[in-house]
Amino acid sequence: MGQVTTSLVDSEDVAWFRDELTAARGAAAALARRTGLDEDRCAEVALAVSEVATNLDKHARDGALLLRVLRTPLRAGVEVVALDQGPGIADVAEAMRDGNSSTGTLGIGLGAVGRLADTFDIYSLPGRGTVLAAGFWSRTGADGGPRGRSGVAGLTRPMAGEQVCGDAWSTRLDDDGSAVLVMLCDGLGHGPMAALAGQAAAQAFRTGRARSPEDAVQEIHRALRGTRGAVVAVARIEPERERLLFCGIGNIAAALISADTRATLVSSPGIVGHQMRTLRTFEHPLPRDGALVLHSDGLSERWSPRDLPGLLQHPPVVIAAQLLRHAGTHRDDAAVVVARGQW
């Protein structure tokens, strides 16, 4: 183990498509243009998203597609995340083979989607469902933007009937690069007022100077005065010391997981922005080849790594999407963030 070797990419969840999957192609092309991708790249994004959306529409149960913006200081990109409740893909390698189109319509197939994308990954459980993530970066401009995966990724999804999500997450490196800090916030209730609290928490965390989880929660507490308030969790991952520091207020679920274990992290009662008891930071050893998972109560806590074989072999965005697919509910805002670095 050593210093942080993971990369961080800012992301913004733009739009979920569920009942109107055919609209995703046009929305993807428009988003790619707004993000600054050239016309050829915009066309490739639209083609890939159309193939994914058509597969969901024709073959999946309860399929949904998310369009996201990805940003680094040097590059911008678009990511599509798709998830469904079945039937799953029995042979992913075969599904990726050239000429194998599961729709019989576009005919470009998942293999071509994978080639068009800069990052591409699928996790599927036959009979239970599939998660797919494909990222498309600008191919012009400054070099140095990551074409690989971020070591931390999260997803947010508003409850059914709402346009905005009251849950938010953020991540940043410590000033000296020795640690990664991760925050997840659940604004009380749902709708625009909850979203304002979530946005204020994320902004306070991103611009804050706190190094410890306790101090970061205090900064967020001050920023949320005058809002509905929120429940918040902050973790500090220190690979060199082989440890994680955690401070949580309220019912954010937090766990360190390995392939077959899940160690729950303890939070204290309270509402950030209103009333908190004395903050406590807990120290935990980092599990080798494991991950940190934080999620709001828009996901049930009744999940286990044992139910998701091989999941930790996949990038954080796919792990997060699979947990949302597996444990998420549409009756509340939902957010999940996963940190999986080389510690």
From TrEMBL:
SUPFAM superfamilies linked to this entry: ATPase domain of HSP90 chaperone/DNA topoisomerase II/histidine kinase, PP2C-like
Gene3D superfamilies tied to this protein: Histidine kinase-like ATPase, C-terminal domain (3.30.565.10), PPM-type phosphatase domain (3.60.40.10)
Keyword check for Metal-binding: no
Molecular function GO labels: ATP binding
Keyword terms of this UniProt record: ATP-binding, Nucleotide-binding
Residues in PPM-type phosphatase domain copies: 149-341
SMART domains in the cross-refs: PP2C_SIG
InterPro entries, per the entry: HATPase_C_sf (IPR036890), HATPase_dom (IPR003594), PPM-type-like_dom_sf (IPR036457), PPM-type_phosphatase-like_dom (IPR001932), Ptase_RsbX (IPR039248)
Stored PANTHER family: PHOSPHOSERINE PHOSPHATASE RSBX
The protein, known as: ATP-binding protein
Taxonomic path: Bacteria, Bacillati, Actinomycetota, Actinomycetes, Kitasatosporales
